[in-house]
Amino acid sequence: MPGPGIRLQLKTLQAYDRFRLRRLMARHRGLEIHPAASSNLAAARYDLAAGARLRIGAGVVTERLAGALHFSLGAGAEVSIGEGTWLRTEIAPVHIVAFEGARIELGPESFLNGCQLSAKSELRCGRRAWIGSGSRVFDSDQHDLDSEHPEVTRPVTIGDCVWVAADVTILRGVTIGEHSVIGTRSLVTRDIPPHTLAYGQPARPRGSIGDRSTTR
Q1: Order of strands across the sheet with 94-98?
Q2: pLDDT above 90 (res 186)
Q3: Which of 40, 60, 105, 195 is deepest in the core (most CB within 10 A)?
Q4: What is the mean pLDDT of the chain?
Q5: What is the pTM of this model?
Q6: CB atoms closer than 10 angstroms to residue 65
């Protein structure tokens, strides 16, 4: 149990971070951070263009590591972080990037662990979606291949209670059904049915998964 001096220092630090959050929200009119979210969010980096909206729900937590959590939103983009989500930055940074007009929705009780989400159209993650360290989710090709093969963008959906393990890449147009598990270092280029264990390059169904609703 911390002594009185340590507790006072922690309370002072938390009060300072709450002040920083109020200043951030005053500076970025589209930034909404619930009062019950972690004060550590003051250490995150926020790049919000005109008309962008970022909503962070109650109980969202992260570590107090300067710039390790990065939100980048283009003009008119919308990002929503559901209640009780852990944006873990201890192992690696978490990058959430929504280009102009794009939408990213992360359901409640989710877990992003040193990963990257990038949307030019739409990326939706359901309740209790887990995305592991080094994993990347893209809803577009990111760039034109050449003059005859332009960039293609299609929405990505990750269902409730899905676990995406470490170093996985999920590409445009993919839907991963609820209660599925994607194995480490997989490349997901096609839809994965619900309750499925999938892995490989490209990822293919390899087995079945039961109900993950109570998994911790």
Answers
A1: 45-48, 69-73, 94-98, 116-119, 136-138, 169-170, 187-188
A2: yes
A3: 60
A4: 93
A5: 0.92
A6: 13
